[in-house]
Structures are given as C-alpha cells and as structure tokens.
Amino acid sequence: MEPKTENMGFIGMNNTAISLLPHDGEAIYYPGDLLPLSNPSWFDILTDSIAWSNDTVKMFGKTLTLNRKSAWYGDPGAAYSYSGIRREPLKWTEELLMIKKLCEEVSNATFNSVLCNYYHDGKDGMGWHCDDERELGKEPIIASVSFGAERIFAFKHRNSKERINIRLEHGSMLIMRGQTQHSWQHALPKSTIVHEPRINLTFRNILM
Q: Which of 9, 30, 67, 114 could potentially form a cystine with 173 if both were Cys, beta carbons 3.0 to 4.6 Å apart?
C-alpha cells in the first residue's frame, strides 16, 4: 500500500511529511531533510556518548545475549520491562536531551525515556512486535529517530495482515500514536545488502 503525502506543520514551519497508516492508528514520517538532524556527525556523536551494551532477551527461561547493542535513558524512576528484562534508566546525556526536545516539539507530546539501539549492519534486525507494554499506557505516543544506514521499517496489521514499508533515512523521525501499537505490528527486517551501522532512538513516556 502506498503511503499518503500530507502537509504537516511543526516548529513554526509548513513541511511535507508522510502519513503511513490507512486506518487503526497514525504513523507520520518526517524525512531527514525536514529536521535539523541530517548532519552526518550525529551518528558519531551518539556512538561515542551512549553507554552501549549488548542487548539481552529471555527465551524459554534463559537469558540470551544478542549482537545488537542497546541502552535505556530517562528520568529517575522511568524503568522499563521488555523481552523479559527490566531496565533502569541511565542519566540523560546532553545530546539525547536535545533530540528529545525536538521530538516533543514535532509530536506535541512529552517523553521521559528513550530506548537506544545500535545495529551493526543488516544482519542485526528486530522481529514483529508491538510496543504495548502496560508501562506505556493505553495509546502510547512514540517518536523514533534514525541515524546512519538507511533501513526498511515494516508495519503489518494484526487482523488484515496488510503490510506497509518505509525506508528510514538518516536524521528522520517517525511518530506513532493512537491505536497503532494495538492494531499494527512493526519490524526492522534483516538485510543482506546493508553493510553499515544504524542507530535508532525511540522516545517514550513511562507511566510512573
């Protein structure tokens, strides 16, 4: 299905963004050239300033270490549990606070935490899932910002199984809100043609 192009105003400007979902939720994509995050140096800054560690998941009662690296930052008390692991927030960095402020201006929402993921290349990915944990509330708003290699990001409706793909550019932002996390799954498919690393920051508001 082809996404729709819309005029979306933010930060005092009237720019073109892309509305991705035809129903049961809202996902708005802001290409990199619409935001002040397109400088290539952002990738290196985040690579060096974030306290990366290998991501872990619990499967069949065992804790497995993944190649993908991650970090969890946020306000005091904004702990988050996913994939069977509870994560306590690290103290915000100056760079993450700058990006958080931009996400709040674009989305007209507030965020108290961010999940940082580092994908070494196309061999690292993320399977189908929804960010519908209880800590995120009934209709969570999530702002996802991408840096580095371009990757395909996919949506799949839980009932109809219709799929929508979008290529996430360096410096771009994806805002998901409304019924999106309850009606649609999303994934970062693995790729044999992507040989460069990617950083993804997903800003959320944890209910405390």
A: 30
